[in-house]
Amino acid sequence: MHTLFRKKTNLAKPDMIRKLWILGAPTILEQALQTAVLYVDTAMVGHIGAGASAAVGLTTTVNWLLNGIFFSMSVSLLSFIARYTGEGDLETAHRTSAQALWVVLSLSAVETAAALGISPFLPKWMGASPEIWHDASLYFFITSCPMLFRGSSVVFGNVLRANKDSKTPMLVNIFVNILNIVLNQLLIGPGTTVSLFTATFTIPGAGLGIAGAAAATALSQSLGGIIIFIAAMKNPLTTLSGQRLVPDWKLLKCSLQVALPLMGERLVLGGGYVIFSTLVAGLGTLSTAAHSIALAIEEAFYVPGYGMQTAVSTLSGNAAGKKNEKELNEVAKAGSIIAVSVMTVMSAFLFFASPLIMKIFSNDAAVILLGAKILKIVAVSEPLFAVLIIFEGVFHGIGETRAPFLFAIFTMWGIRIFLSRICIHRFGAGLTAVWICMVADNICRCFLLLAWYRLKRWKKRLGMTQNEL
User: Fold this and answer.
1) pLDDT over 70 for what percent of the chain?
2) CB 227 within 8 A of CB 172
3) Per-residue pLDDT tens over the stretch 307-357
4) Within 10 A of 18 (CB to CB), how many other CB atoms are there?
5) How far is it, in rounded angstroms, from Cα 340 to Cα 304?
6) How far is Cα 58 from Cα 141, in angstroms, rounded to an integer?
7) Do residues 123 and 139 lie in contact, with contact meaning Cβ atoms separated by under 8 Å?
8) How many Å separate Cα 301 from the centre of its chain?
């Protein structure tokens, strides 16, 4: 019986590692560029002051929640597309790809109405200090306006990746992220004087501050959503040309059944992140600023894992379509080797360089000191977080979403939120204790996913066998 990581002779095959690199490398680069833009936003706003960093970072977790709903449906579509492709049923895979249009239109309408409706009240509900209410509301309102285009980027991007085209989303995001950086320069600050050799010239700036950062994000996301839709329409495997422009309720129902647990997981996690941020906001502006900046910094250090996750999901779905358990094990092992290796090296750098990295994003000594401290805490757990990300991708790809949903409920609310509340309200602990609770959540969920993968029950349900590669 083949089990994961049991024997030296059962290590991942170089061919599978190569396949994952080819499919996952563009997504890693794409997400790295997105993180670079987040860094630019955070750094430029951070130099306005701690209050500005807190205002921008406060609603980040709510945006994760909104994006998570789009992500859930896109992963469900990816799972079915990959499985149909593995079975050789390319016609049904194409019809499934075409349903992305209805997913984007319906979800974006609901999310736009909800986001714009709550924007005036959100900072107060989250327990933020009154001095940042206005800026936080304004930032969230502006960045929520292009929800249709955000949804298009997420859903059509994953549909293209499910059809093994990860280069197009990467190229689109390179352009969009460069645009975001340019718009940041033009909209956030009052202008910059640059000296080049003997010449001096001024780059203009509108001096809009937080509103400028929000507008830059909204404009670049809008363009990105439009371009990724056009790219999908030009791809023969995802185009709507030749497809009936009506919802295929059977396919949508099947996709929704897989997506609902994943959507529930994203809502549980997203809602937990919001409550988590609310707990942090209650610690004051200093903790909120350090927390927001540290979260933005940490994101770059798990980009390789999440970039590889989509490739793992696609190849896991192909293996499920073939009903080949051995191939699925190879995908899981190869993905874990890549993600753990890269993220371990990066986490070591994060541990030792955290004070220097914090100085890029803030000139407040207290924010830098506290942010560096919590980054050291999370750096220790990054290798296990890499394993969590990969096995999450495996379950996404095969459509096994119920168990991860239940695990997410338990660890987010039973460990992260519950223990954080006790630490803060009962023991008067600060941000350091809260981040330890966050790390405990991730570690526990990692081991639960590993334990579930080793069970045979769900593999039998999928009809998987130990076929040779």
Assistant:
1) 89
2) yes
3) 888 889 888 888 888 888 888 889 999 999 999 999 999 999 999 999 999
4) 11
5) 9
6) 13
7) no
8) 12
State residue 200 phi and psi, 5-degree precision.
-130, 130
Place 224 in a pLDDT band, splitting at 50, 70 and 90.
very high
Please name every residue paired with 230 in a beta bridge, in sequence order, or none if there are none: none
Q: How far are the Cα atoms of 55, 68, 140, 242, 250 from residue 111, in angstroms, in the given order?
A: 21, 11, 13, 30, 24
Spatial CB neighbours of 53, under 8 Å, sequence gap ≥ 6? 42, 45, 46, 288, 289, 292, 293, 361, 362, 367
Question: Do 54 and 366 form a contact (C-beta atoms < 8 A)?
Answer: no
Query: What tokens were used for 99?
Result: 């349903």
- Could you give the CA distance from residue 81 to residue 87 in angstroms, rounded to a whole number? 10
Contact between 7 and 268 (Cβ < 8 Å): no
DSSP per residue, 280-340: HHTT-HHHHHHHHHHHHHHHHHTHHHHHHHHHHHHHHHHHHHHTBHHHHHHHHHHHHHHHH
Token pair in block for residue 159: 């549909």
Q: What is the pTM of this model?
A: 0.71
Question: Do you know the residue count of the chain?
Answer: 469
pLDDT band with cut points at 50, 70 and 90 for residue 199: low
CB atoms within 10 A of CB 145: 19
State how far the alpha carbon of 179 is from the alpha carbons of 147, 186, 207, 447, 450, in Å: 18, 11, 18, 41, 41
The answer to whether the Cα torsion of 167, 346, 300, 208 is positive or negative is negative
The residues that bridge with 20 in the sheet, in sequence order, are: none
Residue 354 neighbours by CB distance under 10 Å? 23
- Cα 139 to Cα 31, 51, 57, 272: the distances in Å are 22, 13, 10, 21
Structure tokens at 38: 């987040």
Long-range contacts of 264-269 (CB under 8 A, 24+ apart): 264/405, 265/72, 265/401, 265/404, 265/405, 265/408, 265/409, 266/65, 266/68, 266/69, 266/71, 266/72, 267/65, 267/68, 267/69, 268/405, 268/408, 268/409, 268/412, 268/413, 269/64, 269/68, 269/408, 269/412
Which tens digits make up the pLDDT trace of 354-386?
999 999 888 889 999 999 999 999 999 999 999
Give kind and range of the element (H or E) at residue 75: helix 60-87
Distance (Å, whole) CA 318 – CA 322: 6
Would you list the DSSP string of 197-212? TTEEEEEE----THHH
The per-residue pLDDT for 46 is: 66
